[in-house]
Amino acid sequence: MELVVESGVKKMEEGEATRRNQTLICAPIMADTVDQMLNLMQKAKTSGADLVEVRLDSLKSFNPQSNINTIIKQSPLPTLFTYRF
Question: Which Pfam family would be a valid example here (predicted)?
Fold first, then answer.
């Protein structure tokens, strides 16, 4: 597949082009448990989200290594992690 960039448009194949800076929908996920987060992530995907922001600070009990590894392995969408103090 050949990729040519011309004036802000990526041409993938003849007659087919996509915008260079395509807008994506990010759904914020806040829940008490990792299982609830994973359920909400699946709902976000079904609803059309392109990625999710997982708010780790919303977890009632946060174990960084275990929780993050579980979410990475089971996430149905690209994931952005945040932890707000």
Answer: DHquinase_I
User: Residue 6 phi/psi, 5° resolution?
Assistant: -135, 120
Taking the CA atoms of the chain, what radius of gyration do you get in angstroms?
Answer: 17
Q: Which residues of the chain have pLDDT under 70?
A: 1-20
Neighbours of 25 (CB within 10 A): 11
Q: What per-residue confidence (pLDDT) applies to 4?
A: 46
DSSP the chain: ---EEETTEEEEETTEEEETT----EEEE--SSHHHHHHHHHHHHHTT-SEEEEEGGG-SS--HHHHHHHHHHH-SS-EEEE---
What pLDDT digit, counting tens, does each position of 48-67 carry? Answer: 999 999 999 999 999 999 99
Helix 64-74 vs helix 34-46: crossing angle, to nearest 10: 30
